[in-house]
Amino acid sequence: MSDPAPKPSLERRILALAPTGRDAELTRSVLAEVGIRTQICADLAEMVGEMAAGAGALLISEEALQSEVGMHYLGDRLMRQPPWSDIPVLLLAHQGASSAAARRAIRVLGNVTLLERPVRLASLVTAAQTALRARQRQYHARAHLQELDETARALADSQGRLQALFANAAVGIAELGPEGSVTLANDALCRLLGERREALLGAGLFSHVHPADRDEVLAAYRGVIEGAGEIYSGERRFVRHDGETIWVLLSLTPAREWAGKRGVAVIEDITERKHAEEDLREADRRKDEFIATLAHELRNPLAPIRNSLHIVRATATRDPTIERVVGMMERQVQHMVRIVDDLLEVSRISRGKIELRKERVELGAVLRNAIDTSRPLIEAGRHQFSLAMPDVPIAVDADAVRLAQVFANLLNNSAKYTPPGGRIEMSVELKADMAVVCVKDNGEGIPPPMLGRVFNMFTQLDTGTRAQGGLGIGLTLARTLVHLHGGTIEAFSEGRNKGCAFTIRLPIARELPAIAPGGPGHSSPAREQLERERVLVVDDNQDAADSLGMLLQHLGAQVMVVHDGYSALHALADFRPTAILLDLGMPGMNGFEVARRVRQDPRARDTTLVALTGWGQRSDRRRTQEAGFDHHLVKPADLDTLHSILARRGAPREATAGH
């Protein structure tokens, strides 16, 4: 252990060993007058002992050093001083440098200043002050050395911690030369690349980069060390020593300026994460395929049911019981169609694939369409419905179909979750540059904890008494559509059985849309008769095909029904159809191949091709267009849409999509 540090006050004192007590007191008195503290010692042993406590200089008379033992005793102690220390010794001698004792003292004691006796008091004071100043410089050197020592210890500690972090890091770390050669590598990098450290050092790290990514990584590294960029980070493929390809997160940074054009690479293995992401994408793809297939399989049986209901409604007597049953079945079929559509919307919402076809529309027309859609549910619940709107028309830039879908969803929810005979109110107000639409009811309400969650996917309220069905995505879709229109939607309720209100705010447009004659606001023309149309129905689902054929015959068309693609091609010559309603997913020859062959037949140059299918994804519609179809209808097809296509068959063709 090192000796304890001397007290600062003791380090500035002079230790004096005088021949007589009178000389010692005189010396102390003289030095005290100039502020120098003097400690009188009785002998060399006491002086050596006091030196350990601290001393600025020694004042010794030659008589004290007559003994060789005493001389070497003091000299040995002085030789043990720290490297920074060299205590000044003031030696009082009668003959100055001629004294034998003085010469021995200079040789043995080292830092000696001779004062010839009798010494003048001024000379004594000057010599003492000079010695103390020299000693003070030594103290300064000591402090500087201590600082350097502390800095060195801190640096060594920091380097030790840094080395431990480098060696034990979970990610691979390498120091790279100007061309990417490895000059330093940690254990994690060796494990990650499956290389021995000796093989890595001096070799090029980027030789392990996958060939498809190598040029980009090399260019990025050169840019980093040349100062073009502070850091590079990217997900890239590396090749291990055993040939396995792995995914890594690669970060490249420049080294410090003093290191020259060098860099540091940090490499994290993300192979498992990339595989997990790929698995998720595959699961998402399979989910989309499953939903599309499920929708297709659900739509197929709905088509003959809806067709049969149209036939029953058109041919049955005006029996109230039959009309009531048919109406009920039509509503349930429409409900099933909505559920199938919602299934497909789940995929579009999760992938952000919903697109709008915006145009300038009048908000009142949109709301009236939504009300017409929801009217059967409202009337079935015997609810009182009211609509309050400003006298002036309101224009918005919107996708009219999608926006009507939002309001119809809110009205449907109010109709479902309000006890029979309830009240539903829809109001519209203009506030600044926003149109504020509120749908309010006095139904079952929303518990306060659920207000913040009603817009989440698959969220459904536990009403406790009424099971209302549905998938729990209607409000999620409504929020998404409102946000895409630049608006907001909020829910409010005071609690269970206290009703609720949904408020939608939409930015308004300054000019109203031009209403073309025959457009909204005008009564639709009467249905044209289809006597001149020869319609070929092609579907391997016999119930769907036969029921649709019967329905079209009832509307006046000449109809031929076949159940496979080959029969459809044979019918071109015999039946000469003006329109073909063609299923896609038929065995043997599918609808796409039939369509391509029909388009190659000169006899069918003017024939209208309508895809009538359970497949309704955007990719399905693109494929039918490429195959030569004029229209794409999703089962069960809406009768008005189908009739419109057949009735205006002579008009210029345009893509039509719908139910």
Blueprint (SSEs and pairs):
Blueprint: H1 8-11, E1 14-17, H2 21-33, E2 38-40, H3 44-53, E3 57-61, H4 68-79, E4 89-93, H5 100-109, E5 112-116, H6 121-168, E6 172-176, E7 182-185, H7 187-193, H8 197-200, H9 211-225, E8 232-239, E9 245-254, E10 263-269, H10 271-315, H11 320-351, E11 359-362, H12 363-380, E12 384-388, E13 395-398, H13 400-416, E14 423-431, E15 434-441, H14 474-484, E16 488-492, E17 500-507, E18 534-538, H15 542-554, E19 558-562, H16 565-574, E20 579-582, H17 591-600, E21 608-613, H18 618-627, E22 631-634, H19 639-647, E23 656-658
Parallel strand pairs: 1-2, 1-3, 3-4, 4-5, 12-14, 18-19, 18-20, 20-21, 21-22, 22-23
Antiparallel strand pairs: 6-7, 6-10, 8-9, 9-10, 11-13, 14-15, 15-17, 16-17
Overall description:
The longest helix has 48 residues, at 121-168. With 659 residues, the chain is α/β, with parallel strands linked by helices. It starts with 7 loop residues before the first helix and ends with a strand. Strands 19-18-20-21-22-23 form a 6-stranded parallel beta sheet, with helices on both faces. A 5-stranded parallel beta sheet has the order 2-1-3-4-5, with helices on both faces. It has a 5-stranded antiparallel beta sheet with strand order 7-6-10-9-8, with helices on both faces. Helix content is 45%, strand content 19%. It is elongated, with a radius of gyration of 50 Å. It contains 19 helices and 23 strands. The protein folds into 4 domains: 8-145, Response regulator (Rossmann fold, 3-Layer(aba) Sandwich), CATH 3.40.50; 169-269, Beta-Lactamase; 278-332 and 528-659, Response regulator (Rossmann fold), CATH 3.40.50.2300; 359-507, Histidine kinase-like ATPase, C-terminal domain (Heat Shock Protein 90, 2-Layer Sandwich), CATH 3.30.565.10.
